[in-house]
From TrEMBL:
Residues 206-228 are annotated as: Disordered. It is found in: Nucleus. Keywords: DNA damage, DNA repair, Nucleus. The keyword Transcription regulation does not apply. The keyword Ubl conjugation does not apply. This is MutL-like protein 1. Residues 65-187 form the DNA mismatch repair protein S5 domain. Belongs to the DNA mismatch repair MutL/HexB family. Pfam families: DNA_mis_repair. Its main location: nucleus. One of its GO terms (biological process) is mismatch repair.
C-alpha cells in the first residue's frame, strides 16, 4: 500500500507513526486469517524478508490459529459450541475455541465474528473475563475465538461511529448461555495445570563459592610455600 490518503489531508494527519499503524494492520489480518481459513493471508513489512502474518488455506480453524498465533496457543485451546433452542427466546449458534488454565497472557485476546463480520462486544468480553478470573492466576488473561450466527435483524451496529461495537437482541440471554458453556468446559478440563520445570545447575557454582570462602592460614615467617 502506497500513498494512503494522499488526497485527504485531514485524514492523513490522524495517522500515527508507521510502527503503531503496522501493528494494528498485523492484528487485524491475524484475526481475519483464523476466521477465513479458506483464504491464504500474508503480510510483510516493506523491506522485510519474513512475513509477520502467513496462513495457508486450511480445512481446520485450529490449524489456522496454530499458524498465526503459534503452537503454544493452539495446544491450550478447548472447543466450545452453543446452540439455542426455540424456547430460549433467541435464535443463535456459536462455535469457537477458548484457552484452558495452562494459557497465560497479560492481555485478553477476543476474536469475535458475528455473521462473518469482525466486531467487538464489551458485555460478552466482560462475561468471559469473569469466568476466567476464578480460573487463571491473577493478572492473567485468556485467548478466545468465537463465531456467532444469528438473524441479521437481531444485530444493532449503530451504537458506535466505527461500527465495530455491536449490540444484540436478547443479549443478556445469549451471553448467559455462552458464559455457562465456557465455565462448564473449563471445569471439566482444568482439573490440573501444567508447569514447566527448569533445571538449574548450581553444584559447580556452589563448589567454587565454598572454595573462595575457605580461609587461608598464613605460613610461619621464613617457611617456603610447599610445592604441589
Amino acid at each position: 500500500v502506497e500513498n494512503l490518503f494522499y488526497n485527504m489531508i485531514a485524514r492523513r494527519k490522524t495517522l500515527q507513526n508507521s510502527a503503531d499503524d503496522y501493528g494494528k494492520i498485523v492484528d487485524l489480518l491475524s484475526r481475519m486469517a483464523i476466521h477465513h481459513n479458506n483464504v491464504s493471508f500474508s503480510c510483510r513489512k516493506h523491506g522485510a524478508v519474513k512475513a509477520d502474518v502467513h496462513s495457508a488455506v486450511s480445512s481446520s480453524r485450529l490449524d489456522s490459529i496454530r499458524s498465526v498465533y503459534g503452537v503454544s496457543v493452539a495446544k491450550s485451546l478447548i472447543k466450545v459450541e452453543v446452540s439455542s433452542g426455540e424456547s430460549s427466546g433467541c435464535a443463535f449458534d456459536m462455535e469457537g475455541f477458548v484457552s484452558n488454565s495452562n494459557y497465560v497472557a497479560k492481555k485478553t485476546i477476543l476474536v469475535l465474528f458475528i455473521n462473518d463480520r469482525l466486531v467487538e462486544c464489551s458485555a460478552l468480553k466482560r462475561a468471559v473475563e469473569i469466568v476466567y478470573a476464578a480460573t487463571l492466576p491473577k493478572a492473567s488473561k485468556p485467548f478466545v475465538y468465537m463465531s456467532i450466527n444469528l438473524p441479521r435483524e437481531h444485530v444493532d451496529i449503530n451504537i458506535h461511529p466505527t461500527k465495530k461495537e455491536v449490540s444484540l437482541l436478547n443479549q443478556e440471554i445469549m451471553i448467559d448461555m455462552i458464559q455457562s458453556e465456557v465455565e462448564l468446559k473449563l471445569r471439566n478440563t482444568n482439573d490440573t495445570r501444567t508447569f514447566q520445570e527448569q533445571k538449574v545447575e548450581y553444584i559447580q557454582s556452589t563448589l567454587k563459592s565454598s572454595k573462595s570462602d575457605t580461609p587461608v592460614s598464613p605460613l610461619p615467617s621464613g617457611q617456603k610455600t610447599p610445592k604441589v
